[in-house]
Write a structure and sequence with these properties.
Blueprint: H1 2-16, H2 19-50, H3 54-85, H4 88-106, H5 119-125, E1 140-149, E2 153-162, H6 164-188, H7 194-206, H8 208-218, H9 225-243, H10 251-275
Antiparallel strand pairs: 1-2
Length: 278
């Protein structure tokens, strides 16, 4: 549904704002959508690590996406303001994207860790105590805590505890901040129009919750997708750096390259897993 909404939005832009604006929106949307796939794999790792039951993952993703929409607006407004004053920042963004893309090519799969010793648990525990178990779909619960005053007096009072579900939400939000460091500059390779950048970002992330549950069932089939995402990162980085030398890659060309790279990696993944060669 969200993909259809994005395509209808792009059609309206084409009819009322012109060919160039529509292409910029489509390019930004495809970049954001393709990079979002990597974030979905991160969400899957987080939920598995924290042992979040499937019936509670909807709630975490719902609030996580709302938070991502707000954070992305802040990132984009800040980024546009910086780029408008210091255009050379775009070239720095390009170098960062290339480096991150190359690192992704050679990165190893993260192993599942112990949630009790995770950095998310340690971070949240600095501000609020955490329960050992889940309490339905609640992020916080009230529990009794003994407080000793003097030698004989032992009183019980209610304290607010965070649940592991809230810790998972915090880690999801923080991972999106890290993800935005790549995705927002990548969209700047197409356009720096804040309206186009934000709407393309917003429509891409609004469909993440539904996309996650589809990917969750097929995660083992898409073994080469990360290489396609890494290729997109390197390509967008090169596109930004090339502008420093007055070399421009058209938006239409960028869209074609992104579609071909992702399609090739997805087909290769499906073929390899079907044949059992990997």
């Amino acid at each position: 549904m969200w993909i259809v909404v994005a395509l209808v939005t792009d059609l309206c832009l084409y009819l009322f704002a012109g060919h160039d604006i529509a292409l910029d929106f489509l390019g930004g949307y495809l970049i954001e959508l393709s990079l979002s796939v990597d974030n979905l794999f991160v969400f899957l790792t987080i939920f598995t690590s924290f042992g979040v039951p499937e019936q509670f993952r909807h709630r975490v993703l719902h609030y996580g996406i709302i938070g991502a929409a707000v954070l992305r607006l802040v990132f984009i407004l800040f980024g546009v303001a910086v780029v408008s004053r210091f255009e050379w920042i775009l070239y720095l963004f390009g170098v960062v994207l290339v480096i991150n893309g190359v690192k992704m090519f050679f990165s190893q799969e993260e192993k599942e860790g112990n949630k009790e010793n995770s950095w998310g648990m340690r971070l949240v525990r600095k501000f609020v105590p955490i329960t050992e178990e889940f309490h339905g779909n609640c992020f916080f619960v009230l529990k009794e805590k003994n407080s000793v005053k003097g030698k004989r007096e032992n009183k019980t009072k209610k304290c607010r505890y965070a649940t592991p579900l809230f810790v998972a939400l915090v880690v999801v939000e923080l991972s999106d901040i890290i993800f935005a460091i790549d995705s927002v500059p990548a969209v700047f390779s197409v356009t720096t129009n804040p309206v186009i950048v934000y709407t393309s970002n917003l429509l891409a992330i609004l469909g993440l919750r539904q996309m996650y549950f589809g990917l969750e069932k097929l995660a083992n089939r898409f073994i080469y997708v990360k290489y396609g995402i890494a290729t997109v990162l390197v390509f967008t980085g090169i596109k930004l750096v090339a502008e420093m030398f007055d070399r421009t890659i058209s938006t239409a060309g960028s869209i074609c390259f992104i579609l071909i790279a992702l399609s090739a990696c997805m087909l290769a993944s499906l073929f390899a897993t079907k044949k059992g060669s990997v």
